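FAQ

Q: What does a record look like?
A: Structure on top, sequence underneath. For example:
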């Protein structure tokens, strides 16, 4: 992250308290790397994490417009507590270190309780370098119960697409992809249709809000393109929301034609060869 003007004090260096905000931001991204929507997961587990200790050691000072790398890892898992250690670098220079201790507790009684096995599994697996998500392909019958809540959340509730436009008969014949985390939560989805002989069409690409900026959308897109290529298609087309054009460009798609409106949202057709 880059140091903003508002974070610098009268000494022209970052105010000491802001470093805790930097580390807290890193913890939020740590949950994202675990493919773990924090609030939803904690509600599912029936507990929450509370800070017991937050310490910061200052080795040097950051200044306005410095570009900082904020690093975080889970260093220790106890029975009910977990310790994160963090470090902030300016280039190769270590400027700040920290230790954050969280306690897992009942959110009503405010009493500590053992870290649930699914949460422990995610933390330990991630620190071992394991994949936190699996992408699966299958029919609408296989994945309707997983994909439809996410599509409802993203398209109907968030983007205000009328429900009657979101659901169509093509779901029944499409090949669907879902990205599931270790707790079986669907975090991303998309579908593959036959547009014309040799031409595939990808659509209904959705990623849960907290997971955007991760690689989940790219992984679902790649899985669908691989499936299209395996069945003999040589080209894939899609209708991209204009706000997502950059995402598809990075995946090798190029726009064709003019911008048009679909379900009240600006779109552009894009295509790429397989």
């Amino acid at each position: 992250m880059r140091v903003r003007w508002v974070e610098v004090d009268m000494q022209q260096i970052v105010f000491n308290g802001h470093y805790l905000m930097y580390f807290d931001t890193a913890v939020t991204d740590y949950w994202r790397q675990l493919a773990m929507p924090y609030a939803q997961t904690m509600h599912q587990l029936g507990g929450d994490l509370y800070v017991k200790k937050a310490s910061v050691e200052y080795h040097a000072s950051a200044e306005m417009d410095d570009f900082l790398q904020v690093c975080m890892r889970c260093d220790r898992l106890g029975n009910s507590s977990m310790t994160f250690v963090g470090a902030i670098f300016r280039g190769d220079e270590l400027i700040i270190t920290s230790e954050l201790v969280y306690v897992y507790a009942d959110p009503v009684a405010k009493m500590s309780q053992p870290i649930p096995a699914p949460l422990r599994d995610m933390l330990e697996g991630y620190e071992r370098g394991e994949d936190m998500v699996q992408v699966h392909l299958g029919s609408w019958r296989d994945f309707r119960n997983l994909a439809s809540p996410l599509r409802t959340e993203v398209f109907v509730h968030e983007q205000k697409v009328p429900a009657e436009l979101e659901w169509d008969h093509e779901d029944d014949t499409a090949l669907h992809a879902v990205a599931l985390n270790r707790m079986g939560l669907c975090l991303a989805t998309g579908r593959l249709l036959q547009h014309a002989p040799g031409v595939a069409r990808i659509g209904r690409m959705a990623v849960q809000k907290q997971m955007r900026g991760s690689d989940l959308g790219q992984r679902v897109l790649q899985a669908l393109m691989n499936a299209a290529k395996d069945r003999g298609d040589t080209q894939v087309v899609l209708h991209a929301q204009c706000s997502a054009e950059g995402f598809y460009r990075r995946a090798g798609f190029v726009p064709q034609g003019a911008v048009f409106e679909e379900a009240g949202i600006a779109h552009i057709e894009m295509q790429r060869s397989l």
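Q: Is there anything notable about this one?
A: DSSP finds seven helices and eleven strands in the chain.
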